[in-house]
Write a structure and sequence with these properties.
- Four copies of one chain form a homotetramer.
- Chain A is an alpha+beta fold.
- Chain A has a domain at 8-110 and 175-235: Gyrase A, domain 2, CATH 3.30.1360.170.
- Helix content of chain A is 43%, strand content 17%.
- The first copy, chain A, has nine helices and eight strands.
- Chain A has helices at residues 24-35, 39-42, 48-60, 80-86, 133-159, 164-167, 185-195, 209-225, 227-235; strands at 8-10, 14-21, 71-79, 93-96, 107-109, 118-120, 127-129, 176-183.
- In chain A, the strands form three sheets. In chain A, strands 2-3-8-4 form a four-stranded antiparallel β-sheet. In chain A, strands 1-5 form a two-stranded parallel sheet.
- In chain A, helix 3 packs across helix 9 and helix 7 packs antiparallel against helix 8.
- Chain A is elongated and about 70 Å long.
- Chain A starts with 7 loop residues before the first strand and ends in a 6-residue tail after the last helix.
- In chain A, 47% of the residues are buried.
- At the A-B interface, helix 4, helix 5 and helix 6 of A face helix 4, helix 5 and helix 6 of B.
Chain lengths: 241, 241, 241, 241
């Protein structure tokens, strides 16, 4: 029971790479099955520089399937409103903690001092700029007060014998949840192209900051596993093949 | 601005069939492309009773693809916690109202008097039974109080100039949202097999009551469009082909 | 039985739009659910020019989901080697005639006189140029001879009582087949971006000519149903959103 | 060039497990994220017998997602008509050798002496029984003659300078090809449920023998990696969760 558990407010996301089978060479052999015997390509296997060229070519000309023979599983903690956006990505596998099967813990996201709070511009091209200290104070106070109130209501209903799946309906979308997600590198690149914002992106993207925080952490783990593929992704405008 | 908008509490779901191309004959011609010229089947086209037999056979032996050449688009209003479960179904197309692009309205789900509030049994085989009037009173009071508090905090942050995508984080998962969802009949049957509960189901299912309310409304619309397919689905244990 | 059926050689593809629910307004209302209430966008519904602007914006910034609430079903006749490429597109529904359930008819594709027969350049950037009349004559003769030989072998095995699914293994990949395929407009745009070749394409594509013939016919049908979407697709480099 | 390459006739399929991240414990931790904190389940982690019970429960009640955080990559050699059926399975990743990019080798499938050649019964419930030696002789002779004729025509067109993608159209669907395929365990179970035939299957299936040969080899590799999951699959009627 969590009756004594203190409410926590956080402003970070956590991403752990649980397991992976994903390397640049996976891309090479998958692509090479199409072309083996084609003499001008047969030396790719032995020559790292040609391997780099092949991956770059696949990325540029959108030969996406060779990037799919890979699998990355992450364990992610983030607020519900982030997972709401995340799970719109359908080429992925998800298991999330369940408010039906377990009691949810009192951990809530509150924007940190560096979170830009003010939205400017017109729909489709919003920009975010910093709020004043007063605005940030209002956000923190209102969010904390709402979370305390909601979690108290949740506990009161549980204490009265009400089912978890009913009591949890009062919890805010800023409540932290956790999930495992498994993606292949192609699906991951598509996710990153939409959920990160980079000056070298060919297509504009306008991710909410909080999902971008998750995506950035995921990208760093992936880049370490598949450095040549990651470079080719960056060099080709961060367009998923 | 919604400053004058009164908070609403509801306990119903709404489902509207926006458009569809879905009929029993769609299944027949899709299946018949495989077999045309096979004499023993060629009279199916002319004989309604044989059409019924063919659809039943496809359902029973899990020939699923002929059911896919159909499309149903629904407009659904339901609380966020229902959409959270709904969007785990990946063979579907979704567009939901956005708390980033528009101000969310103060409409919240509160369980009605006929909602079973008490969970009994062990994990994986829970049963729900009615709560006492006192338990129901607690649920209504706590939920309404939480929603009022949260929506007030939301409005206060908006009034202070904070971006919608930040202010909305305090809103509870019982806030109503709305979405368009498009599915084919095969994906719909899979959804129904998991999100409704019927005595004649071959496999057990334990949907949360609120998503079952949505699913029941969707099923009624679909059954009217494809009555023979619906009967075959029911007669074969509500197993999606 | 087809014993008296004469062998046919064709060099065309046929594409019939069987049914569809797909219009530009489907895109508008699906996109508008996200933003309704956002004043600067609310006049889109009444103003055709703004509708055009909204669709163009969705295409340009890769908001793909509003294009998914559409469905187009085609009946296509083409050789097996075309269907082999076609069915690599996984966001689609297929039913094809079956060589297990019916006897296949003696209809074969032979390249027409305008089919470029000679491949030049290096892998990944091949170009095709016309063959000589002599080369074309060789292709026609060899293909027709192979098809006649194979179909004779097929008939001989059937006449000996061998199962259809065994006898058909000798038939060449240039044998015509037929299928129903259902796609939404987003999946169709992805298909077209890879299986057609246009000077205004942002990304290069190198479709085999025969699947391009099918894709061109499919595109013409679709463009008539969703002219504003089609123009936006073309104007934005034929990149699927 | 393959001008000196002798034609080969084979009657076997080869399946090699190239790499995998797939174990019974992957299922356990993915399922446990939903329920951690639920006391009655917390001892699963420490108790192998309870782990077995949990996996069996997930299989029986069709909780499919915990089986998805796994990945198996196979390299398969089989005739084109097998790959035609295989690639209808859309929840998978494929890379196949390409007749556009490389010259295809003269290797062909011919049914072996133990292949049942005669089809009996009505559509939807065919049975296969052995052919006579004379029927088998006809199949072998006709198939070999067709393959020799077709490969000769292919070589003649290549020798005349015709593009590979054109010349290959005469090759029969019994020509061997090779591919990498990557699937998760859930998609694999769905594949196996449809492409193998077992007395203990809950739903009937009527796979063509040649794809069943591939599926049996894939199943053996998978069963060794995930023995508890495999037992639960078998014990629950080989129904994919």
């Amino acid at each position: 029971m969590s009756e004594a558990e203190a409410i926590q407010f956080r402003n970070d996301m956590t991403v752990e790479l649980v397991k992976a089978t994903a390397s640049d060479s996976d891309v090479i052999w998958a692509a090479r099955v199409s072309t083996k015997g084609e003499a001008s390509l047969d030396d790719v296997d032995a020559d790292p520089e040609k391997a780099r060229g092949l991956i770059n070519y696949l990325m540029r000309d959108r030969h996406g399937t060779p990037f799919e023979h890979t699998s990355l599983t992450y364990f992610i903690s983030a607020p519900i409103f982030v997972f709401r956006e995340f799970m719109r990505h359908r080429i992925a596998s998800y298991n999330e903690e369940s408010g039906r099967y377990r009691e949810l813990r009192p951990v809530f996201y509150v924007p940190g001092p560096d979170r830009n709070l003010i939205q400017q511009g017109k729909p489709g091209a919003y920009e975010f700029v910093p709020g004043t200290p007063e605005q940030h104070r209002i956000v923190v106070e209102q969010t904390e007060a709402s979370c305390r109130q909601a979690y108290g209501a949740y506990q009161d209903m549980l204490a009265a014998g009400v089912a978890r799946e009913v009591a949890r309906i009062v919890l805010p979308v800023t409540t932290y949840s956790s999930m495992y997600v498994t993606m292949n590198a192609r699906a991951l690149m598509n996710f990153l192209s939409l959920r990160t914002k980079h000056p070298d992106s060919h297509f504009p993207s306008f991710p909410q900051r909080e999902i971008e925080m998750v995506a950035d952490l995921m990208e760093a783990e992936w880049a370490a596993l598949m450095p040549i593929t990651h470079q080719a992704f960056a060099a080709n405008g961060r367009v998923a093949p």
